[in-house]
Amino acid sequence: MLQSVVKFCKLCVTPNTRPKMLFNNEGICSACLNQKKNINTDWEKRKKEFLDIIKDIKSKKNNYDCVVPFSGGKDSAAIALKLKFEFNLNPLLVTFAPVLWTTTGVMNRDAVVNEGFTNIVVNTSGKVVQHLSKKFFIERGNPKKHWDAGIAAVPLKVAVEKKIPCVFFAENPESEYGGRITKHESEKILTSSQILETWIGDDPMNWIDDKVTENDLEPLRVPENFMSITNPVFFGYFFPWDVYENYKYVSKKIKFTVGKERTIGTFTNYDSLDDKIDDLYYYMQFIKFGFGRCSRDASRHIVKGHITRKQAIDYCQKYDGEFPEKNLKEYLDYYQINLDKFYEIVNKHRNPEIWKAKGNDFELINKLK
Asked: Is the pTM of this model over 0.90?
């Protein structure tokens, strides 16, 4: 439930309208509180936990030691490169295809694979993806809801089918970006309940309709009892997680391609580069919750000490909620709608508790300042 009065964290720029975000009595969000806790984390102890895991999983038969869910972006690339070249593992990279591939994303994925990896790319039916993306854009203001399911389910399916003992997911969103961690083990291990309740927020079987069958949804369904075969853990539990440091690391190891200009809606040019639909996805976050890609990026940079809150506010005032003009025509063609219908869908997702009409436009009731 969104709050009637939008408040922003006193340390970063995250609002209380962010789903699952918690604030303490001092006005500090749970993401910042978790980062403060990380300062006192015994990282040497956690590294030892990691080394114990890889000692157990290292194959004696030249098979794959682990699976890495892999988009080709900076974070999954950093994990893959570290596992292979710093810890001498043989990872299998598993990619659940984005909605609309970008040239940059393909180039970065190839650049990593060419370092000596095997990469399985799972493309589900184009018609099914198109239908689900349009359906969720219209109904939920989230054109990537099905993708949230796929990036969790597909790597686990591959690990189960090939009996690969470990899957290294990236970071735990609840730990890093705000949320509630009820059990210590859930910081480290990804469970089926976390996937359904936190990542997807739904059971894909509910998506069956006149155009989507149970068979169509098979790639999006988490395999039953997967934890009896493979151990899904968060790489970010064992080592300090920092998206900017991941970018710097990957840039030193491979030819990592970034945008020629900053990405629409933010001040960075190196994050979420593999899917054209991302511009729309983050714009719809702004429409639904009053914060966009820039707020997301800026808060992550603040907590790691890369920028100040003052700098973040300046960025957000300039770029947050920037309209996704660049790929607009492609969105209209992909969804087979006209511009009026597009605006109708967008505006129906504006929450009246955070937006007010101003002439023929809208403005936020509470602005970051």
From this structure: yes
* pLDDT one-digit tens code per residue, 39-62: 889 999 999 999 999 999 987 666
Dump strand ranges (E) for the chain: 66-69, 91-96, 118-122, 166-169, 231-234, 355-358, 361-364
**201-217 in b/e burial notation, b at 16+ Cβ within 10 A?**
ebebeebeeeebeeebb
Report DSSP letters for 179-230, one per residue.
----SGGGGTB--HHHIIIIIISS-GGGG--SS--TTTTGGGSPPTTGGGT-
Q: Which of the four pLDDT bands, split at 50, 70 and 90, describes residue 267?
A: very high
Per-domain boundaries in the chain: 43-244, 258-364
pLDDT band at 187 (very low <50, low <70, confident <90, very high): confident
43-244 CATH choice from 1.25.40, 1.10.150, 3.40.50, 3.90.70: 3.40.50
